[in-house]
Amino acid sequence: MDKIFQSLFTKELLDSPYRDYNEYILDVLKRVDFLALSYLKYRDDENSFNQIKQKIKDGLQKIDEIIDNRLNKSLNIISFDALQYLKNLYSLKEEEYFIFVAMLSLEIDSKYEEMFKKIDGDKYDLLNVSIKLFYFTKDLFEVENIYENKLGILSKFNALCFKPDFQRLDDRIYSFIISNGRASVDMSGVEVYLPSDSSELLINEDIPNRLYEAVSIASDQFDNLYFYIYGPYGVGKRTIVRRFSDILNASIAMIDLSKVLENSVKSLYNTLIVACREAVINQGCVCIYNYDVIQSEEEDFKGYEEAVISVTKKFSNIIIILSQKPQTNRELVNKYMWVDVQVDIPTKLESIKLWKKGMENLDIEDDLEPFEIANKFSFTPGQIFGTCKEAENLMYWNKSNILTKKDIYDCAYKQVSHNLSKHATLIYSKYNWDQLILTSKEKEMLKNACDQIKYKHIVYDEWGMDKRLAYGRGVSMLFAGPPGTGKTMAAQVVAGELGIEMYKVDLSQIVSKYIGETEKNLSDLFNEAKKSNVILFFDETDALLGKRTEVKDSHDKNANLETSYLLQKMEEYDGITVMSTNYLENIDPAFFRRISYVVHFPFPDIDARKQIWKTMFPKEMPISDDIDFDYLAKQFSISGGNIKNIAVVAAFLAAKSSKKVEMYHIIKAVKYELEKQGKILLREDFGEHWYLLK
């Protein structure tokens, strides 16, 4: 036996410090060497085998003394011992720790497998071999309560997530030991957040503080605490969890449930155990995010919630679950200490803080103020900082340090994912206030409507008006007037002024003959619009806002319900809704109370028509000096829409036959437009310019 001991420990290393952690590991494995070599040498001699048991104990004790002595001299080299850390963390008894080391030996050197085969045969059972060596016995039944012992060991080691066949050490545990705790988890969907000295959050700082208070109060009273944090994607749930980790000064194993399912749907239970073990190794909490992927009515996901809960509660007394959906499984809530925490989209004042922070490194030529963009977009923190990062990338691509408002708005809309194209069409804004020919009163009304969006943070948030309004923070406008008087143009001017996208609603895709289908379509439309706060433009809404009729049958009743439902959704919507009608008298007067602004678009008089004619031709278009705008305005009583059509046709006539737009081209285009309307034209209709048509 002395020869075995001397073969394992050379004299020059007995009293020297370890050169590195690997040398220390090799010394620990020598306990296995010493027992295995001694076992093989003496097992065939019954007398000698029984007589040396005390010497075996003495030898093991001497090995431990050598290791402790060398380790104490190596404190400046080995400040952390992953093996002892795991032993203490999992409360491994001496017997269990030896088995643990035996499993480690198989990963380090193939010679140990040969030893174990000699002890227990080619198909050796590692647990049996380890117990025989630890107790130095050839008969397992000599070990007291052997069956209970083996079951207890198997149960504990399975909970620690060793490989199911129990013959090999789990890869993660092995890498943790070999790296002496420095290796991070290498598993898709799992990461460990370590606490740091972070500063307070810009918003929602109260939530991590309240979580900390709840843990401080209730941690001794309950075996498990569940914090269910829910809110829209990008609202900052994981940011809150990381801040809570910093305040608690404890690590958090962050588990992406969608990735876990993607990697191994069939072995969800085992995969979760592997992931949750990180919380044990790092002595922290468990956080499951993207939990909503299993909150489904589909048969495939039934029982998944219970599986997640049953696994996580074994590894941590604090479990945080993040989801986009409220918890509807009340059985779980009633069964455990369960706290629901809702995280809302930031208020306007909170959004201003976030935009201000995100825009610190951006140089915007139009002096875009944070409150301007905060009032136009109801964004989550993720979308806000995503916009600012997109803008930084744009500066790099453009090789310019200056951005425009339009650049910022374009970057903002890239953060939005909606399905509005199903029921509406994006209309690009190409007009400004100067091109909109309207009375000063009506223009002022439109500008007031824009101001209601620009300064909502002052009225609703700073001045507290939101406390007086359960809903109705948006702006609804009704544009009324004959066809071609500029209703659609006005809507585009408003969109351009605010820098907000406008979608023209296709009523043919909304209104349905089937009862309840129109309301469903309207609900889908407004829900999608909320994601980006766009302007919704309902053209010719007489079909939806007509006067309510006496209810004589189910169709009358349903029509009235559709109208009321549209107005209800408009009031709930925080953005802008614009409706247009050619016949104001067809609109039920009772609806005006629920509409913010009613703007009248009168048929243009002579002065208005002259302005429209002059503004219709761009500066770049060559126009003859003999164009008689006074004559055109006085002679032809037509709307702005007709004038636009005439200008386009005249331009193409000029492009074909001349270098300038002449009076001849305009008169000819007028003739086409009037004939298109079915009018029979006479000489006097063109007055002094009749000769141009000869």
How would you briefly describe this protein structure?
The protein is an alpha/beta fold and 694 residues long. Helices cover 51% and strands 9% of the residues.
State the helix count: 31
Strand content: 5-15%
Radius of gyration: 39 Å
User: How does the major sheet shape up?
Assistant: 6 strands, mixed
Average pLDDT taken over every residue: 84
Termini separation comes to: 128 Å
Low-confidence stretches: 548-557
- Number of separate strands: 14
Global outline: elongated
Layout of helices and strands:
Elements: H1 2-8, H2 21-42, H3 46-51, H4 53-72, H5 82-89, H6 94-108, H7 111-120, H8 126-135, H9 146-159, H10 171-178, E1 190-193, H11 206-218, E2 225-230, H12 237-248, E3 252-256, H13 257-263, H14 268-281, E4 285-289, H15 304-315, E5 318-323, H16 330-335, E6 337-342, H17 348-358, E7 363-364, H18 370-376, H19 381-398, E8 402-403, H20 405-413, E9 424-427, H21 440-454, H22 456-462, E10 475-480, H23 487-498, E11 502-505, H24 507-510, H25 517-530, E12 535-538, H26 542-545, H27 554-572, E13 576-581, E14 597-600, H28 606-616, H29 629-635, H30 640-657, H31 663-676
